[in-house]
Structure formats: C-alpha cells, structure tokens
Amino acid sequence: MGPTACLVPVILCGGTGTRLWPLSRATYPKQYWPLAGDGDETLLQQTQQRLEGLTNLAAPLLICNEDHRFIVAEQMRQIGVDPAAILLEPIGRNTAPAIAVAALHASARGEDPLLLILAADHVIRDAARFRATVEAGRDAAEAGRLVTFGIVPTAPETGYGYIEAVEPLKVGEAGGVPSPQPIARFVEKPDPATAERFIATGRFTWNSGMFLFRASAILAELERLAPELVSCCRSALDHDSADLEFLRLEREAFANCANVAIDVAVMERTSLGSVLPLEAGWSDVGSWNALWETADQDAAGNVLRGRVISEGSRNCYLRSEHRLVVGLGVDDLVVVETDDAVLVAHRDRAQEVKTIVRQLEAVGAAEGKAHRRIYRPWGYYDGVVEGERWQVKKIQVKPGACLSLQMHHHRAEHWIVVRGTAVVEKNGVEELVGENESTYIPLGARHRLSNPGKIPVELIEVQSGPYLGEDDIVRFEDRYGRSDAGRPPAAVAVPAP
User: In degrees, to the nearest 5, what angle opens at C-alpha 159 toward C-alphas 154 and 162?
Assistant: First the structure.
C-alpha cells in the first residue's frame, strides 16, 4: 500500500554561521548565500528545490528569525514557491520549540501530516539519493516512528555527534537504500580514538539534525517528555499575530520556552527513535574548509569563486564578492573578500574564524554583525562612504515596491536617480524623477519614494546633518507593517552643529 500522508517540509532557518565570516553575518547569515555549486541559488533555495519529486509533497513551512522574514519571503518568491506559512521567532530557542510550533501549526486543522525537518544551511550533492532515502523512511514514520537521518561517516570526525543503531547498518550495497533501524543511543562529539572505534563497528552515523515523523507522533512524545515546552509553544501560537504573509509568535510565551535541542528534549529519551543512513554527499558547511572539501576543485585543488586569478597556488579557497583577488604561489589558504572585510586564513585554522567575530563584537565593530549592504522589503541600500555630518548611499528599489512615508529630525537628503523612474512624494506633492535627475528632501519633510516601473530604480542618496543614524526616522505609513522607529533625541546624543 502506497503512502497516503502528505509530506510537509519544515525548514529551520535559524543560525548565524559565524565560522563563515566575513560572508555570513548575523544580519545575513550563510543560509541566504549561494555557497554551493556554480549557480545563484542560495542554501535555503537549494534546500527547497531538492525536495521536488517527493511523494505527496506539500508546501513548506519555514521558521526564521523575525529580522530575516523579508529575506526568506523574497528567496522563496524567486524560485516560485508559495510557503504554507513563515513563522517568526521573536527570540532563538533552539530546535525543540521550533519543531513543536511546526507540529502544532501543521496539525491545527485536524490533519496529521508527515513532517520532514530540515536545516536551511546544509549541502547535499546527490539530491536524487536524498529523495530516495526520504521515501525509504516513510513507512516507519507513518507507523509512528521518529526517524532521524544519520550521515554515513567518511572519516573519524570529532566535530559531530554520533548515533548508534542496535544493529550494524547495511549501507552501500548495490546502490540500494537501507531501512531504518532502532536507535541504541546518541553520543556527544567523541575524541579521535573513540570516533575510530565507532566507525569500525558499522553501527554509528553522524547526527545530521534532519528528521521525519508524523506531527502527532512528535507532539505526543513532546507532551510526555517536555509538557511545559509544548504549553509555551501552544500559547505562542494561539496568541500569534498576522504580519503580512508572516505569523509572528507571541514574544513572552515563546521566550518562556526552554532553550533546548530536539535531540535532548526527545530523541535521546524516546523508545520510538529510528536511524536511517544517508549517503548523499552531505555537509553542514560548518567552516570555509568544509566548503572547500565539498566544492568541485580544479586540477590544483583550488576552489575559485568570483573575480579570482590563481597562479601556482594549490589547495586554496579563493572567493571575491567585489574586487579582484589574486593568489600567487600560495598553498592551503582561505581568502574571502567582501566590500568591507577580507579574510586570509590557513585552511587548518578555518574553524577559528568565530573567535575573530567575537573579538569584533566585543569592540562594537559593525563588521562583526552587519554587511555594508542592508536588505529591506523594498530592496536594499549600500553604505558607500561617510564623513563627519554626511554620508553617501546607493539605494535600489524593486519594481512595484515603495519606501515608507517618513520624516527625519536631523538630516536632509539629496536623491539622484541613476536608473529607472521613481515617484517621489514630498509633503503630499508627487513628482516623477527619471534617470540623471535629482530631488531634495528638506529636514522634517514627509516623504517617500516608490517604483512604478518594471525595472529596479537605482539612486544615489547624499545625507547631511548632525546625526545620521538609521533610528532617526518616524514612519507614518508603511505597506510592510514596520513600526515607527521613534524619535531619536530621547535616546541619542546629537552632536552640536
């Protein structure tokens, strides 16, 4: 008898990926970057796209930080996917609360779908093999088992947790997909000698953090093993608020959830766990070295991305986002260029990048958390250059998009359109501003810009005034539901003229 339950992908979009700095930062982490392959698809987009062809596949349910909501929605729109819902976490609370909320939401209408729990930032090179493995786990999941996908080890890694099955796992036999086996135990990251012994038994796999189970099955175990967590999640969902295409979980209730992983809350304690071996070229892309290992390399072992020239270099990862990067006679290096930071590291020390991020955050350096380019629901702005009492930005507004109706207390602005045609409203009066034309926004004027055309509007904005912070904004109308940022004088010391 074939499977009858629909399959709901639950894509967890949390995490900041600090070990992939300077590309991955808190405001735009690694799951939203095109890191794997030669195409433009991001890790999040690839996570959704590799599911196409699964039996009874339903629309995905995505869970993300509220600060990333417009990024997630836009990236789904780019690949033609209409999510079942995008749930917004007001605060990070690990995977158990996220999965509990997903299960509650998916079963709210009396349905009991299969939930395929996925991380948005994994690389899986063999999508067909991955889908075959998911299908192989359906019967067990439909029967009430909590199936986790264990990665068949390729080396005695010490950076992953391990899962032991009760019997040796039959993998790699005639290209077939093995069946799920009951879980004996979960083991934290072992030392090298222990990892060697684990692999020799044939019973151990790496813990991938991917799962397949019925919504009712995981909820029943959560109710039994972590009832307070379920209660908090139910309250957060019951009191959620609709925000455009998003569902915003109630902050106080969700903040009361235990900060705990689903492994700890359920999988290590349940008798219903099964492990299904997965051999599909998986990586969690935990460092630049891991990205080098999973990418296609040239004859000299180099991975080259962007405007890069390599001459006499070997086993390097060289990436440019903007400027030309040249590797001449160097070995085993990671070089990553962005518009405001450059990383040069030995591949063997790539895991230590996160310590640099901590140092940057400790001194309040903006480069530790944010890129120069900041994305908004209407497009983005790029801080080009700044000085005392002035700064210059490049702004791009998507077709059909519109900035909020707003004013500033401490700055005036000049806008110069360099591409497209914009409608600019100033104190209730509209004007059309085309390419190579400009307009002036006086301090205190109510203003907004919209793009009525079919191509992006690009403009150069020159700001001047005693205080140029992003919190000097009062919003009067905003189609994206963003709140008034408030008046800065109460919280900001504005320099004297």
Answer: 70
Instruction: Note whether residue 89 is domain-resident.
Output: yes
Q: Are strands 7-12 and 114-119 parallel, antiparallel or unpaired?
A: parallel
DSSP codes, 2-32: ---S-EEEEEE-----GGGTTT-BTTB-GGG
Residues 6 or more apart whose CB falls under 8 angstroms from that of 303 comprise 291, 292, 295, 296, 297, 316, 317, 318, 319
76 exposure class (CB count in 10 Å sphere: 0-12, 13-18, 19+)? buried
Two structure tokens written together for 462: 């020159």
Has residue 497 been placed in a domain? Answer: no
β partners of residue 30: none
| Distance separating alpha carbons of residues 118 and 482, to the nearest angstrom | 29
Note the pTM of the prediction, 2 decimals.
Answer: 0.90
Q: Name the helix (H) or strand (E) containing 228.
A: helix 227-238
CA distances from 419 to 243, 395, 399, 451, 463 (A): 32, 11, 12, 11, 19
| Lookup result for tokens 């982490």 | 29
117 Cβ neighbours under 8 A, 6+ residues apart = 10, 12, 95, 99, 102, 209, 210, 211, 212, 262
347 and 221 in a common domain: no
| pLDDT (tens digit per residue) in 48-72 | 999 999 999 999 999 999 999 999 9
Q: Residue 2 is which amino acid? A: G
Backbone angles phi, psi at 367, to 5 degrees: -65, -15
Task: Say how many C-beta atoms besides its own lie within 10 A of residue 470's C-beta.
Answer: 9
CA-wise closest residue to 332 among 341, 345, 342, 322 = 345
Give 234-260 pLDDT, tens digit per residue.
999 999 888 888 999 999 999 999 999
The count of other CB atoms within 10 Å of the CB of residue 305 is 17
| Domain span including residue 255 | 7-283
For residue 411, the tally of other CB atoms under 10 A from its CB is 20
Counting the structural domains of the chain, the total is 3
| 3-class secondary-structure state, position 251 | helix
Question: Lowest mean pLDDT: which of 98-112, 121-135, 440-454, 476-490?
Answer: 476-490
Residues 412 and 464 grouped into a single domain: yes
